[in-house]
Amino acid sequence: MRILISNDDGIFAEGINTLATVLSELGEVTVVAPDRNRSGASNSLTLDYPLRIREEGDRRISVDGTPTDCVHFALNEWLDYRPDIVVAGINHGANLGDDVLYSGTVAAATEGHFLGVPAIAISLVGSTHFDTAAQVVKSIVVNLLEKPLPKNKILNINVPDIPFSELKGWKVTRLGARHRAEQMVKDVDPRGKVLYWLGPPGACQDAGPGTDFHAVEQSLVSITPLQVDLTAHDALESVELWMNEVGKK
């Protein structure tokens, strides 16, 4: 296998290095990741300055850009072949529910999908048992070799932060939802200038059975298939009728 790995926590993060070590048992691994933490970058591309890269070891490249930049660079410039899969992670912390809209980890997988490579995103709901998440990914990648994903889907995987032996199974889930984010935190720097920190994410709102939140709470690996097409297909007819009414006024 030829596997491309990226993340949003940076090339020196424990999660991505644990993942690279375990997946190297399956074949050739290339790591192309941000040179620092770029969590929350979503699908942003760097357009206002050129990217700089640095070789950090054998088949390891850091990029002074976003996770999307990294995968875009790897697939459109650095690699002279098409990898079998893009694996984004292991993220330090959950990507549940609304988190996927902001996640650089999910964005890295999405960019792989856009560029024609099967892709998955993997997150550890915590910061301890990265080995558990890596073993989960290894099993999934092996399975995907035998039974590939539909071409228009990526997988968003969240793993409870517990030893592998304590996992109670796997669960295909839908995205849950959080309450609105909490208030921003106002502060003052040493020079008296006012500054603002983003507040914590909202607490769980839609977290019942069937959701990714619920699965993780039950010590289950949550696997959520995502589609990149954001069209609200079930609303096309009603919006067209609405527009027809607007046009009559």
UniProtKB/TrEMBL annotation:
Entry keyword annotation includes Metal-binding: yes
Gene Ontology molecular function terms on file: 3'-nucleotidase activity; 5'-nucleotidase activity; exopolyphosphatase activity; metal ion binding; nucleotide binding
Residues that, per the record, bind a divalent metal cation: D8, D9, S39, N91
Cofactor annotation comment: Binds 1 divalent metal cation per subunit.
Main localization of the protein described in the UniProt heading: cytoplasm
Known cofactor(s): Mg(2+); a divalent metal cation
Tagged with keyword Transferase: no
PANTHER family: 5'-NUCLEOTIDASE SURE, 5'_3'-NUCLEOTIDASE SURE
Purpose of the protein: Nucleotidase that shows phosphatase activity on nucleoside 5'-monophosphates.
HAMAP family: SurE
Name of this protein: 5'-nucleotidase SurE
Biological source species: Photobacterium profundum 3TCK
Record lineage: Bacteria, Pseudomonadati, Pseudomonadota, Gammaproteobacteria, Vibrionales
Gene: surE
